[in-house]
From TrEMBL:
Species whose genome carries this gene: Streptomyces pimonensis
Biased composition range(s): Basic and acidic residues: 117-131
InterPro entries: UPF0478
Basic residues: compositionally biased ranges: 141-150
Protein name: DUF948 domain-containing protein
Keywords: Membrane, Transmembrane, Transmembrane helix
Keyword check for Transmembrane: yes
Residues spanning the membrane: 12-32
The keyword Membrane appears for this protein: yes
Region (Disordered): 117-150
Amino acid sequence: MHTVSGGEVAGILVAVFWAILVSFLAVALARLAQTLRATTRLVADVTDQAVPLLADASAAVRSAQTQIERVDAIASDVQEVTSNASALSTTVASTFGGPLVKVAAFGYGVRRAVSGRKDDAQAKEPRRDVIVGRTVPGARRDKRTRGKRD
């Protein structure tokens, strides 16, 4: 019979632990390989989806730029029309404003003159005015307003 020495037992224990360690490392490397494959697939899928999205975003930005240019052109046209309308308004006011004021003043003068004749005809009858619910005789009114008539 053969007896086993302490060095041989130690060698067997080291070999067993070494085999267990290698087994754990092999499992860890296998799982790492699976994770790398899944990551590679995910990156490929994201790339496949991102390229069309970027193309759509680029088209949308170009379309927005075109619309902004159109709005800018419209705004400048509106500004030009506004300045033209302002100039036209000023021209019309200066051309027709003076004569219209003169015609209105003449019409007012004629009405005053005609109403002055009516007042002379009505001055013969006593006049009564109503002030805040009371009747004041015309004679009293004439005393208070004497010298204030136009």
